[in-house]
Amino acid sequence: GNSVTQMEGPVTLSEEAFLTINCTYTATGYPSLFWYVQYPGEGLQLLLKATKADDKGSNKGFEATYRKETTSFHLEKGSVQVSDSAVYFCALNSGGSNYKLTFGKGTLLTVNP
Amino acid sequence: DGGITQSPKYLFRKEGQNVTLSCEQNLNHDAMYWYRQDPGQGLRLIYYSQIVNDFQKGDIAEGYSVSREKKESFPLTVTSAQKNPTAFYLCASSANGQGIEAFFGQGTRLTVV
Fold first, then answer.
1. For B1-51, what is each residue's pLDDT tens digit?
2. What SS3 string covers chain A?
3. DSSP 3-state assignment of B79?
4. pLDDT at B1 (0 to 100)
5. Which residues of A sit within 8 Å Cβ distance of B?
6. Which residues of B touch A27 (CB under 8 A)?
């Protein structure tokens, strides 16, 4: 079956630090990969996605590259802000008869001023 | 504005009572999902529906029931058979297809006392 493994948090950084959150996956076929963000007390919002190998998703300064050879989709940002403090989820969906998302356990990021 | 609406935001129930969580979407999406979120557990899929009048069990369906009589609506009932119902519940919808992201509601926090 499909699975997603994220680095465990929490991650605490100072403002303007470099961020990496690791994500690896196991899936049948050729999955699409997503990063979602959840701010306190809210639902999830799509941050970025990639649908095929070597695609790079990017949004709001965040980037992730779909690496099929290492089955990875690591999230990076060059300079984090306090407002980036949230929980980040890596997810995938694959084809076949359904397209439901499989999520990692989430990584809590706290950015201090 | 198009979106997905969950109500209520907070819900309190006594142990042994059934409770129904509402989820409505006006995005014209075929697929809808219910997830449960617990600290450190990430998101776990309860039920999903790819088309009206049809739904499938997810990974943790025991103690829950759903219906999909209308495309816009996918209510979740938490029954008295659910042993640990206190959690944050998230509803999502999407078009069917690989690489298509899901849109999430704001969530309902259910507390059973």
1. 679 999 999 999 999 899 999 999 999 999 999 999 998 788 999 999 999
2. CCEEEECCCCEEEECCCCEEECEEEECCCCCEEEEEEECCCCCEEEEEEECCCCCEEEECCEEEECECCCCECCEEECCCCHHHCEEEEEEEECCCCCCCCEECCCEEEEEEC
3. coil
4. 64
5. 31-32, 34, 36, 41-46, 49, 51, 89, 93-95, 98-101, 103-106
6. none
Whether the link from the prior residue into B8 is cis, omega within 30° of 0, is yes
CA of B8 vs chain A CAs: smallest distance (Å): 13
Which of the four pLDDT bands, split at 50, 70 and 90, describes residue A100?
A: confident
Question: Cβ of B94 and A99 within 8 Å?
Answer: yes
Query: In the block, which residue shows the tokens 């997503």?
Result: A34
Contact A100 B48 (CB under 8 A): yes
Q: Which residue type sits at A66? A: Y
